[in-house]
Write a structure and sequence with these properties.
The protein has a single domain, classed as Divalent-metal-dependent TIM barrel enzymes (TIM Barrel). Helices cover 43% and strands 15% of the residues. With 277 residues, it is an alpha/beta fold. The structure holds zinc ion. The site of zinc ion has 5 residues, from strand 6.
Length: 277
C-alpha cells in the first residue's frame, strides 16, 4: 500500500498542549500565521477563560476547532467518585458546546484497586449515562485506547479492539474512537480494528507523534514524527483506506520541547508533519 505524502498544512491540527508554554491566545495567533488548519483545545488552556469567547477568537483566527481534550476517568471503586465523574463529564460537554468543539476525547480511567474488567464495565456505564446529554448538545464522544503501560490508573481500555467493543455495547452514533499512534502502534490487530471502526463510522480522530528509543519518561517524552519507531504514514494510510478524512492531530507531551523556543519547535513540527506523517 502506498500512501501519498502530505503536501500542505490544511489537515494539520495542533493540540494546545503540544506548545504548552504558549497561552491559547498566543497559540491561536501563531498556528493561524503558520497556516495550520485545526486546533484541539486542552481544558487547562481554558482556565479562567470563557469558552464561548475563546471559541469565537479561534474561529476569528481561521482555525477549525477539532476537539476538546479531555473527559473520562469513569472508573472508581467508590460509587460517589463514579457519580462525580459523570457530573464532571456533563460539565465538560457543556464546555465543548460553548467552545464550539464538536468532539470530546475520552481518557476513560482505571482504578488499580479493582480488576480491569470491572473498570471497563464502569466505563461503559459512565459513558452510557452521559451520552444522552452529549447527543442533546450535538457533541460526539471518542474513546481513546491508551498504551497498556497506563492500565493501572489512566485507562482500562488499552487496545482499539476494546474501544470498538465498548462502542458496540453503547450502540450510539455519538460514540466513536480516537486512534493515537503512540498508544496503539504495537498492536498486531491494529489495521483490522481500524477497518472495523471505519466500517461502523466510528473513526472520529487521529493523533500522531513518535515513540523514542530510549524513552526517558513514560508520559512526557514523546517524539516528533520521524524521531522514533512508529510507522506513522502507514497507519495514516490504514485510517484513510478505512474512510477517515479528518485532521492529523499532532499531540506531543515533551518536557524537552517545552523547554525550547516554541517558534522554532513549531517550524520543526511543520517539517516533521510534511516529511514523516
Ligand atoms: Zn491522543
Amino acid at each position: 500500500m502506498s500512501v501519498e505524502p502530505l503536501t500542505n498544512l490544511s489537515k494539520l491540527c495542533l493540540h494546545t498542549i503540544t506548545t504548552r508554554p504558549w497561552s491559547i491566545e498566543e497559540a491561536a495567533a501563531k498556528y493561524s500565521k503558520a497556516g495550520i488548519g485545526g486546533i484541539t483545545v486542552w481544558r487547562e488552556a481554558l482556565e479562567k477563560r470563557d469558552p464561548a469567547t475563546i471559541g469565537q477568537m479561534l474561529s476569528d483566527q481561521g482555525l477549525t476547532i477539532v476537539s476538546l481534550c479531555r473527559g473520562g476517568f469513569f472508573s472508581h471503586r467508590e460509587p460517589e467518585k463514579r457519580q462525580s465523574a459523570i457530573d464532571e463529564n456533563r460539565k465538560i460537554i457543556d464546555e465543548a458546546a460553548a467552545l464550539g468543539a464538536p468532539l470530546i476525547v475520552l481518557v476513560c480511567g482505571a482504578d488499580p484497586n479493582q480488576m480491569l474488567e470491572e473498570s471497563r464495565r464502569q466505563i461503559v456505564d459512565g459513558i452510557g449515562s452521559i451520552l444522552p446529554h452529549a447527543e442533546a448538545c450535538g457533541i460526539r464522544l471518542a474513546i481513546e485506547p491508551l498504551h497498556p503501560m497506563y492500565a493501572d490508573d489512566r485507562s482500562a481500555i488499552n487496545t482499539l479492539k476494546q474501544a470498538n467493543d465498548a462502542c458496540e455495547q453503547l450502540q450510539s452514533e455519538w460514540i466513536g474512537v480516537v486512534v493515537d499512534v503512540y498508544h496503539v502502534w504495537w498492536d498486531p490487530d491494529l489495521r483490522r480494528e481500524i477497518k472495523r471502526s471505519g466500517h461502523n463510522n466510528r473513526l472520529f480522530a487521529f493523533h500522531v507523534c513518535d515513540w523514542k528509543t530510549p524513552t526517558t519518561d513514560l508520559l512526557l517524552d514523546r517524539g516528533l514524527m520521524g524521531e522514533g519507531c512508529i510507522p506513522i504514514r502507514t497507519i495514516r494510510g490504514w485510517m484513510e483506506e478505512s474512510g477517515f478524512t479528518g485532521y492529523n492531530e499532532v499531540e506531543i507531551f515533551s518536557t524537552i520541547y517545552w523547554e525550547q523556543n516554541q517558534d522554532r519547535f513549531l517550524e520543526k513540527i511543520k517539517k516533521a508533519y510534511l516529511e514523516n506523517t
